Amino acid sequence: MPTVPRLADRGVLWIVLAGALWATGWATGDRWARRAAWRDLGGLAAASVTANVVAKGLSGRRRPDVQVPAARRLPRPSSPSFPSGHAANAAAFATGVAIEKPSLAGPAIALAAAVSASRVATGVHYPSDVLAGTAIGAMAGVMTLRWWPRRPLMPAMAIRPRRQAPAAPAGEDLALLVNTSAGTASSRLASWLAAELPKATVIETDADQDFAAQLRLAAAGARILGVAGGDGTVRTGAAIALETGLPLLVIPAGTFNHFAADLGLRSARDAVAALRAGEAVLVDVGIAAGRPFVNTSSTGVYVDLVQARQELEGLLGRRGLGKHAAEVVGLIKVLRRSRPHELILDGRRRRLWLYFAGNCRYEPQGMAPAYRPDLSDGRLDVRIVEARRLARSRLVAAVLTGTLSRCRVYYSWLAGSVDVSPADGQPIWLSVDGEVATAESGFTQGKHRQRLIVYRAATG
Length: 460
Prior knowledge:
Layout lengths: L2 H5 L4 H17 L2 H29 L25 H16 L4 H17 L5 H21 L26 E6 L7 H10 L4 E5 L5 H9 L4 E6 L1 H14 L3 E5 L5 H5 L5 H10 L2 E4 L2 E3 L2 E3 L2 E5 H18 L4 H15 L3 E5 L2 E12 L20 E7 L4 H11 L8 E6 L2 E5 L5 E5 L2 E6 L2 E5 L4 E4 L5
Helix pairs in contact: 2-3, 3-4, 3-6, 4-5, 4-6, 8-9, 12-13
């Protein structure tokens, strides 16, 4: 029994397990494993501060004065007994796993229970200490949902096409391009797809090749167009699918896979199952300056962040890091050096840090956008951050406290289209689906005149 709590001292056991979850998710493309890791770390931080700093500072309760056998005895800690910090950390970890990865909830709860029980068995806590710590940890884990809502398990709503998309159990008439320079896409994934869909034409490509040209060439002899990669890859695939009138198969193999997640596609297996069943829907595609986007289009500080990230990715990548590290370093750089943008939105002049337009309404309202309940609502989700006094500090504070809807520098509304032009005559750098496009003298955002047919997970 002493071994178990020693492993969990200072949360080391849970931090290591969270790291293992993240690494596994990164290697396998399991976004929910990565989400569980980040949620666990957030819950651990909140539980540790609440239990070890706040609650212990108020209680002052002495440790139990009991004798236990030497084989399971631990050195008596000098901190107050109430509540158990070990139990709080254990419960926070198990709650985070249960929220994002229900399949691992059983083992996580069992391990957390073992750590909590060991604190009583080794004589360093009363049972009430452990119960209180467990309650604090579980509450901390659940409270992460306030700042980072859980994505629904069901796919977003969409319109059923008049004619079903073709079912292709063996990949019949499918041209599938795998962008091996994106996220978790690789030659190994291409080989797996070729084995699962033996009648499909599977083509490997990378960032050094003209992806759009290859897609157009492949689409000429196909009835179904498929892409494997991240949201940038999907955006290009959507553009070519709209041009050719072909249904699009999306294989989630990027870093974030926002569009695939809203379609209910968690993995390549989900996408292949949808293709075999012929399960497809019609979804909206946004347009910004004539460029299609499936997720978001924005300008302002986000474009600065994308540019900074792209500059840093090569350097950090050579050092064994990657896009996530580049984003963190880039964000620090952008917040220090960026300047507000003077824009005219539908005829109204505004001084902004950020202008964001989502393809369909994002949830939750009044918080950072996380998911879309409907992929064919015909609307743009417009959100802006005005450059008022201490705007950045107020925005960060609102995000941390979950009060973004009441932040006076943040506004959001739904629109059918938005005209954007520069107030100072300078070109506007535009980002579509996380990639910087070109500088524009002004542009209109709206919806493509036709919807895209795309395969998605069955809704049951």
